[in-house]
Amino acid sequence: MQIDQLPALRDVITNHGLTAKKSLGQNFLLDLNLTSKIARLAGDLNGHDILEVGPGPGGLTRGLLASGARRVVVLEKDSRCIPALNEIAEAYPGQLEIFNADALGFDIRTNLTAPIRIVANLPYNVGTELLIRWLTPKEWPPFWSTLTLMFQKEVAERIIATPGSKAYGRLAILAQWKTNPTIVMELSPEAFNPPPKVHSAVVHFDALPKPRFPAPASLLSTTVAMAFNQRRKMLRSSLKSASPNIETVLRDAGLNPTARAEEISLEGFCSLARRLAEY
């Protein structure tokens, strides 16, 4: 697929010697049909600033720019990729800003202007950590309106999991408390260079104007982590350090003290966090 006048991604990789580094969690998506589809799944990009993390040779970057993004800010830790990204910047003057930076230490808000969408084929080794940071800012609504992110399929399934399933856990609670997460695309290993050992999936998150149920954020997070760290235990055991009266607290929250974490709904955990705050 030809979306601009730039070379094919395989040629870009060859020209710049961009072999993927396992230490950086790199797996390059080379099909511009797929990168353009991901850009479209992010919604209407016109009038938006877009943050992309780990662009590599720039396949998704090109899809975002060709789809009408007002401006794209990319964070690329691998300095080998910068010359290839500079070529894209020359083809889209004034629309692409490149930072040779680690996303975990970058101040995003000072470099983008609302409305903001985040779209990325996240490096596998930092994807979950970045997601949790974006889901747990000090203030809500967040600085972004949507996230469209690629993960290992197993991680994507954990994000949308429901009570009673093996995938259900802390990640599902954090994501579903403040957003509507949906798997919008799945990709086989063969779509990447080099092919990873796992399938991948793209998850789209729409930020809710306020959390789905009221709860103190920090207490909800620690309570959920405590419960799922010992998910095979009953709540009265896994949460015994949360309160000396944990059985009473659980009953006041409408929960069975003998239930296990994977049986408790998001609303149930929020109720529990409120009760713990009162005690």
Can you describe what's shown?
The model has no long low-confidence stretch (mean pLDDT about 95). About 35% of the residues lie in helices and about 15% in strands. Strands 4-3-2-5-6-9-7 form a 7-stranded mixed beta sheet, with helices on both faces. The chain has a two-stranded antiparallel sheet with strand order 1-8. α5 (about 125-135) links the parallel β5 and β6. With about 280 residues, it is of the alpha/beta class. It has helices at about 10-15, 30-40, 60-65, 80-90, 125-135, 155-160, 170-180, 215-230, 235-240, 245-250, 265-279; strands at about 30, 50-55, 70-75, 95-100, 115-120, 145-150, 180-185, 190-195, 200-205. α2 (about 30-40) crosses α3 and α8 crosses α11 (about 265-279). The chain contains 11 helices and 9 strands. It folds into 2 domains: about 10-205, Rossmann fold; about 215-279, Helicase, Ruva Protein, domain 3 (Orthogonal Bundle).
End-to-end Cα distance, whole Å, is 60 Å
Number of domains as seen in the coordinates: 2
CATH fold descriptor of the largest domain: Rossmann fold
Q: In percent terms, what proportion of residues is strand?
A: 15-25%
CATH class of the largest domain: Alpha Beta
CATH architecture of the largest domain, by name, is 3-Layer(aba) Sandwich
Strand count: 9
Task: List low-pLDDT spans.
Answer: none
Tally of separate helices? 11
Major sheet strand order? 4-3-2-5-6-9-7
pLDDT averaged residue by residue:
95
Report the sheet with the most strands, covering strand number, pairing sense and barrel closure: 7 strands, mixed
The 3D shape can be described as elongated
Tell me roughly what share of residues is in helical segments. Answer: 25-40%
- N-to-C SSE series? HEHEHEHEEHEHHEEEHHHH
Quick one: CATH superfamily of the largest domain?
Vaccinia Virus protein VP39
Q: How large, in whole angstroms, is the Cα Rg?
A: 21 Å
Decide which structural class fits the backbone: alpha/beta
